[in-house]
C-alpha cells in the first residue's frame, strides 16, 4: 500500500513568522493517515524541522546540488539538507527547469544526490501548454520520467509529481480524465522499469490544487496525493486539502 502524501511547496514565500502554521497543521492532523510535508525556503529548514520534531508534519527542501560538497557558491548539498532534519527534497520543478535550465540528466543527478544523503526525492515532470495542445503530453512526460528518475528507485527513495506547467499558479487544472490518463501511464512506465517496486512509488498531482478541487483529484486511481504551491501557504487552505486526502 502506498501511503498518501500531501506536500506543500512554499517556493520563495514565507518567513520565520509563517512557520507558526506548522504547529496549527500538526494540531489539526495528529491522526492523519497520510504523510504531510512542507517545503520552505532553505534558511527556514532548520527552524521548521525543529518545530515539527517527530510530529505528523515533516519538512522538505525545494532543490539540492548534485555534488556532496565543493566550490558551488549559493548552492546547498543534500547532506546538509538532511542534517537540518528535512526528509524530502523537490528536484526538477518546472520553475527550476525553466529559470535555471535544468535538464533531465541534471535532475536525475540531483535526485541521486538526495537519495545518497538519505532523503526522499520528489521528482517533478510535466508538459507545457504547447506540448499538450500538440498532443505530445504523454510522450514528453514519459521521456522526462525516463531521464529524471534514478535507477534503483523505490517507494522509500522516490516520489514522482506530475505538474502540467500550464496548471501551475494559474487556477487551471486538466480534466480529471487527463490526470487519470497521465497517472495510469506513469504507473505503467514505473512498473515496466522497476517491476513490482514501481507499484510502491507514489505519484502526486500538482498544479492549482485547492480545497475545492482536491477531493475530485484524489478520487482518481494512481493519484497518491498532491504537490501544492499557493494553497500550502496558509493552514486554512492546506488543512482541508489534507483532510480530503485522508478521506480519499
Ligand atoms: P500551485 O503550484 O499549487 O500554486 O499551482 C504547484 C507547484 O508549483 O508545485
At a glance:
This protein is α/β, with parallel strands linked by helices and 248 residues long. Helices cover 40% and strands 16% of the residues.
> What is the number of strand segments?
8
Strand content: 15-25%
Count of individual domains: 1
Gross morphology is: globular
Bound molecules: 2-phosphoglycolic acid
Classified by CATH, the class is: Alpha Beta
Order of strands across the main sheet: 1-2-3-4-5-6-7-8
Radius of gyration: 17 Å
Task: Give the name of the CATH architecture.
Answer: Alpha-Beta Barrel
Biggest sheet features = 8 strands, parallel, barrel
Q: SSE order in H/E notation?
A: EHEHEHEHHEHHEHEHEH
Report low-confidence residues grouped into runs of 5 or more: none
Which structural class fits the helix and strand makeup? alpha/beta
Q: Tell me the name of the CATH homologous superfamily.
A: Aldolase class I
How far do the termini sit from each other?
Answer: 14 Å
What's the SSE blueprint?
Elements: E1 5-9, H1 20-28, E2 35-39, H2 45-52, E3 57-61, H3 78-83, E4 88-91, H4 94-99, H5 104-116, E5 120-125, H6 129-133, H7 137-148, E6 158-162, H8 176-194, E7 202-206, H9 211-218, E8 225-228, H10 235-247
Parallel strand pairs: 1-2, 1-8, 2-3, 3-4, 4-5, 5-6, 6-7, 7-8
Helix pairs in contact: 5-7, 7-8, 9-10
The chain binds 2-phosphoglycolic acid.
Can you give a write-up of this model?
The chain is an alpha/beta fold. Helix content is 40%, strand content 16%. It is built from ten helices and eight strands. The protein has an eight-stranded parallel barrel, surrounded by seven helices. α5 crosses α7 (137-148) and α9 packs parallel to α10 (235-247). The model has no long low-confidence stretch (mean pLDDT 97). Bound molecules: 2-phosphoglycolic acid.
Amino acid at each position: 500500500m502506498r501511503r498518501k502524501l500531501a506536500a506543500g511547496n512554499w517556493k520563495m514565500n514565507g518567513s520565520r513568522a509563517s512557520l507558526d502554521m506548522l504547529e496549527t497543521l500538526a494540531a489539526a492532523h495528529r491522526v492523519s493517515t497520510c504523510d504531510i510535508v512542507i517545503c520552505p525556503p532553505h534558511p527556514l529548514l532548520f527552524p521548521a524541522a525543529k518545530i515539527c520534531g517527530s510530529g505528523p508534519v515533516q519538512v522538505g527542501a525545494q532543490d539540492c546540488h548534485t555534488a556532496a560538497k565543493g566550490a558551488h557558491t549559493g548552492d546547498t548539498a543534500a547532506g546538509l539538507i538532511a542534517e537540518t532534519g528535512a526528509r524530502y527534497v523537490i528536484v526538477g520543478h518546472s520553475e527550476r527547469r525553466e529559470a535555471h535550465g535544468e535538464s533531465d540528466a541534471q535532475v536525475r543527478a540531483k535526485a541521486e544526490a538526495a537519495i545518497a544523503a538519505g532523503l526522499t526525492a520528489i521528482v517533478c515532470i510535466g508538459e507545457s501548454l504547447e506540448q499538450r495542445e500538440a498532443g505530445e503530453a504523454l510522450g514528453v512526460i514519459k521521456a522526462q520520467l525516463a531521464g529524471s528518475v534514478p535507477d534503483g528507485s523505490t517507494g522509500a527513495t522516490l516520489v514522482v509529481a506530475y505538474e502540467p506547467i500550464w496548471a501551475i499558479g494559474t487556477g487551471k487544472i486538466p480534466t480529471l480524465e487527463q490526470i487519470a490518463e497521465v497517472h495510469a501511464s506513469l504507473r505503467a512506465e514505473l512498473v515496466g522499469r522497476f517491476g513490482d517496486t514501481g507499484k510502491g512509488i507514489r505519484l502526486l498531482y500538482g498544479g492549482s490544487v485547492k480545497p475545492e478541487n482536491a477531493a475530485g483529484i484524489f478520487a482518481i486511481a494512481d493519484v497518491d496525493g498532491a504537490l501544492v504551491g499557493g494553497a500550502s501557504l496558509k493552514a486554512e487552505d492546506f488543512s482541508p486539502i489534507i483532510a480530503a486526502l485522508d478521506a480519499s
